[in-house]
Specification:
The structure holds two protein chains of two kinds. Chain A contains 18 helices and eleven strands. Chain A is of the alpha+beta class. Chain A has two domains: 238 residues, Cytochrome Bc1 Complex, Chain A, domain 1, CATH 3.30.830; 192 residues, 2-Layer Sandwich (Cytochrome Bc1 Complex, Chain A, domain 1). In chain A, the strands form two sheets. In chain A, strands 1-2-6-3-5-4 form a six-stranded mixed sheet, sandwiched between helices. In chain A, strand 9 and strand 10 form a beta hairpin. Chain A starts with 10 loop residues before the first helix and ends with a strand. By secondary structure, chain B is of the alpha+beta class. Chain B has two domains: 203 residues, Cytochrome Bc1 Complex, Chain A, domain 1 (2-Layer Sandwich); 190 residues, Cytochrome Bc1 Complex, Chain A, domain 1 (2-Layer Sandwich), CATH 3.30.830. Chain B contains 15 helices and twelve strands. Chain B is globular, with a radius of gyration of 23 Å. The chains are: A alpha+beta, B alpha+beta. Chains A and B meet through helix 3, strand 5, helix 5, helix 12 and helix 14 of A and helix 2, helix 4, helix 10, strand 10 and helix 12 of B.
Chain lengths: 462, 436
């Protein structure tokens, strides 16, 4: 199918903070999805998110492996494998999976992130068993040949050109990641470095598949017009028939990643490019996530506080950076902050701005620092926090609307090691964050020694 | 950026699950409603049948700029106060402009519905257009135009439309140019809103936690004060002038954006459904389309490749696009033209037709997986005058398409020699070209 590398969840907003909107910026849009869960005998977890608006289901299989789990020098394997999962099994010819889904009126796709890889189809509920059978089949029966790999390698190199090499802002984003993470594999692009994609071998990819793909390392999420009682027999007849592959091979699919050393140097990078017609500025700070604590703090406590903080500072029309730099001082066309709490490893807290014509980057940066300085000194107010919380709680209500959202949020959570209850209690956790906690998190995360300041500049200054 | 926004290539299914009601208010404002009381949310989409095609020459981007300014202050509320009200009530209110339509969307929690409709009504009827937001929004649009000026896909699409529609509003960019956006004044915007947004060119779709009885008075309160009739848009009918030219726009990028197109088929054409099925087989669908198979799967020439029916109110196109490394542009163009020709000359197979119909009918319910998508559908069906029973009839229209119809249509419509092509990038090996 399309085999898209989609850096889903908030990673995409962190990578491109200008795309932020207030609701998206609220992070995992977890509300109360009221999911039902069970586990198959082979260890595979199953989550059902009922939504009975129409007789349709979204079926997703999430693997707890992503680009940050790739061996050194082999960047791009996780994503390459995602593409190749459509190239046939012992039972299905290359491309047949997709043709069958289409003939059944289904839509499908797949995406890869640093922490997970997921495959999904949306179909009429009576076609669910059919896609489950095929998804279970390719979990263990993938067949790859040199013949299918080479055209796909070209496709992936074109994908890389389209997403990254054609766009100076995207090239700079790659460099920001490489500068922000000294040792953690988040420093590598999900799609991989061009020169390493070119060298990936069939045996590397198959090795990665065998190492990570199996029922114990996968999560089935089905959202839509179905209940757990209805799904269970289908799951047992399909995924349930797969023996636990890792136990059999005497291994475990456990992640082991290089960790980040203490950071103490401010980094500044810039990209000058003739294609840049609208400069931009950002400052990114290494940050906690739901699963990663920083500076001795408890991971998730800091993450919830930072989520509310990002909502306060955010990207909305009345947020302080926008109001000050864009509306009042007329220095910028955009300005704001963003934060992504998802992810197994360290996240980032991002400040960004883009100047109006005639405004120098130094003046823009000074104004951002000035605004931030006021917050560091005064802290956020109770009123700001109450408004932000109200907004986040509403986001949780809106998140229940689309069939896909619940599946997505629960998939990200479980694939990174959170529990269903973390998602379900998200509104209460957000509600419990105090002003003091937010201000402590603000002062903790804004550490120059853990930051990268990045400038996207035209070839010549005006 | 997708320059070709997919119009309503609508779909419908035997939709027992969705019931559309026509709501007519005491003041004679009509809306189509799908009730859904599971979540305390209401989503509304509206569209006025006027768009960027009505922008005066030299003021291209006027409708777009108006759409960006409608939520920047109204009545007693200046921009910050208005936005703050929206945020405090967790209401989403947005507008945008296409070539033929001016669109709005409103999303609110049920508990705030009165305030939400009130804010929409204020935005439409009492917009302020204060100097500060006008300058600010203009600077933001210009920043975006500057950024997109080096985006190969955007540049190629703009150029293609210029070539296909010279001396016609459809050939002019809906977002305008740096010069034309600079020329648009607050007075122009006010005039646009006063004269072009009216009850007689408005359609409304509502989905969510509201009954017809609750909606009717809100329709009057919100839209009742709008002018009864809009000043009509003088947009002439036009055929695309595709003459087989290939044009290169130089941009220093490793991957060229290729776009191509010629005359297409209008939405109200009796052959539309045959064309819709044909385009699915050619490049409109998913991984099973011919372009996807030939360009991507077999040769690895591109990550994305597609074709698209692009019906407009006063014309129609069939267009397509692909992104490929500069060195492989020639080969890609050859494959694209060959597929265009092959479909015109040899048509599609019975199996392809069956597969297309199965997908297009079977996937129809997938259009209704969220309130926004349902509301968009309700608006699209009204804009295209398809009838309130379209939901039930649509799959029948697809089923009725025959193999001879598709093949006749393909022979008549597809003309590889006429395809106009624009390549934005630094391509080599593409032979005869007209450079800019």
């Amino acid at each position: 199918m399309r085999k898209r590398l989609r850096i889903l969840g908030l990673a995409i907003f962190v990578a491109a903070p200008l795309l932020l909107t207030p609701l998206q910026g609220s992070g995992a849009l977890a509300g109360l999805f009221n999911p039902e869960t069970f586990r198959l005998a082979n260890g595979m977890r199953v989550v059902v998110v009922p939504n009975h608006r129409i007789p349709v289901v979204t079926h997703m299989v999430w693997y707890k492996v992503g680009s940050a789990d790739e061996p050194p020098g082999k960047s791009g394997i996780a994503h390459f494998l995602e593409h190749l999962m459509f190239k046939g099994t012992k039972k299905l010819a290359p491309g047949e999976f997709s043709r069958i889904v289409a003939r059944n009126g289904g839509r499908e796709n797949a995406f890869t992130s640093h922490d997970y890889t997921a495959y999904h189809q949306t179909v009429a509920v009576e076609r669910l068993q059919m896609v489950m059978q095929m998804e279970a089949d390719r979990m263990i029966n993938l067949v790859l040949t040199e013949k299918v790999i080479e055209p796909e390698r070209s496709v992936i190199l074109e994908e890389r050109r389209q997403r990254t090499d054609n766009n100076p802002a995207a090239i700079l984003r790659e460099h920001i990641s490489a500068a922000l993470y000294l040792n953690h594999p988040y420093r590598k692009p999900i799609i991989g470095w061009d020169h390493e994609i070119r060298e990936l071998k069939l045996k590397d990819i198959l090795g990665f598949y065998k190492r990570w793909y199996g029922p114990e390392n996968a999560i089935l999420v089905v959202a839509g017009d179905i209940t757990a009682d209805e799904l269970k027999p289908l799951a047992e007849k399909t995924f349930g028939l797969i023996p636990p592959v890792f136990a059999e091979a005497g291994q475990r699919a456990a992640r082991s990643r290089p960790s980040e050393p203490p950071q103490s140097a401010e980094r500044r990078i810039f990209l000058r490019d003739a294609r840049v017609r609208q400069p931009s500025w950002s400052r990114q700070f290494l940050a906690p996530s739901y699963l990663f604590g920083l500076a001795g703090g408890g991971a998730s406590d800091q993450a919830y506080a930072l989520q509310v903080l990002a909502e306060v500072l955010g990207g909305g029309a009345t947020s302080p950076f926008y109001r000050s730099l864009v509306v009042e001082r007329k220095l910028a066309v955009s300005a704001g902050a963003s934060y992504n709490p998802d992810g197994l490893g360290p996240g980032r807290f991002v400040l960004y701005a883009s100047p109006r014509p005639g405004v120098g980057m130094a003046a823009l940066e000074a104004a951002m620092e000035e605004e931030l300085g006021e917050y560091l000194e005064k802290g956020v107010s109770l009123d700001e926090v109450s408004r932000a919380k109200r907004h986040l709680r509403a986001a949780a209500v809106y998140a229940r609307d689309s069939i896909r959202t619940g599946a997505q949020v629960l998939g990200v959570a479980l694939a990174t090691g959170l529990g269903v209850e973390d998602v379900e209690t998200w509104p209460q956790r957000i509600g419990a964050v105090t002003v003091d906690e937010i201000n402590a998190a603000l002062r903790m995360v804004i550490a120059p020694g853990r930051s990268v300041t990045a400038l996207l500049l035209p070839e010549k200054d005006d | 950026m997708v320059a070709f926004v997919a119009p309503l290539l609508a779909t419908a299914f035997s939709a027992a699950a969705i019931e559309v009601a026509r709501v007519v208010s005491p003041g004679d404002i009509e809306a189509w409603l799908v009730e859904e009381h599971t979540n305390p949310i209401i989503t509304m989409r509206i569209a006025f049948e006027v768009g960027a095609a009505a922008d005066p020459v030299g003021k291209e981007g006027l409708a777009n700029m108006a759409s960006s300014l409608l939520d920047e202050g109204a009545g007693e509320l200046d921009s910050q106060a208005f936005q703050r009200r929206l945020e405090d009530l967790s209401i989403t209110l947005r507008f945008d402009a296409g070539r033929d339509t001016f669109n709005g969307q409103l999303k609110t929690l049920t508990e705030n519905k009165n305030q939400a409709f009130d804010l929409l009504g204020m935005a439409l009827k009492k917009p302020r257009f204060d100097a500060e937001p006008v300058l600010r929004i203009r600077s933001q649009i210009m920043a975006r135009l500057r950024r997109l000026s080096q985006d190969p896909g955007t540049v190629a699409n703009r150029r293609l439309l210029e070539i296909l529609f010279p001396d016609h509003p459809y050939g002019r960019p809906p977002e305008g140019t740096l010069a034309s956006v600079g020329a648009v004044t607050a007075g122009d915007i006010k005039e646009f809103v006063d004269k072009r947004l009216a009850v007689d060119n408005l359609v409304i779709g509502v989905v969510g936690d509201i009954t017809a009885a609750e909606l009717a008075p809100l329709l009057d309160a919100t839209f009742g004060g709008l002018p009864a009739a809009a000043e009509t848009m003088q947009v002439p009918e036009v055929r695309a002038k595709a003459k087989g030219q290939t044009m290169v726009v130089d941009i220093a990028v490793p991957q060229s954006a290729i776009v191509f197109g010629h005359q297409g088929i209008k939405r109200d054409d009796p052959h539309f459904y045959a064309a819709y099925v044909m385009n699915y087989i050619l490049g409109g669908g998913n991984q099973s389309s011919r372009l996807y198979q030939e360009v991507r799967e077999k040769r690895g020439l591109a990550y994305s490749v597609h074709s698209l029916l692009y019906p407009l109110d006063h014309s129609a196109l069939i267009v397509g696009g692909a992104g490929t490394a500069n060195a492989r542009v020639g080969e890609t163009l050859e494959v694209l033209r060959r597929e265009w020709r092959r479909l015109a000359e040899a048509g599609v197979s019975g199996e392809e037709l069956t597969d297309a119909k199965t997908y297009l009918t079977g996937s129809f319910p997938l259009r209704f997986t969220s309130s926004s998508r349902i509301a968009s559908f309700l608006v699209g069906v009204q804009l295209d005058d398809l009838g309130i029973d379209y939901l039930d009839k649509r799959n029948g229209y697809i089923e009725a398409v025959t193999l001879p119809q598709v093949n006749r249509l393909a022979r008549w419509l597809l003309d590889a020699e006429a395809l106009s092509v624009v390549v934005a990038g630094a391509p080599d090996g593409i032979g005869k070209t007209e450079k800019e």
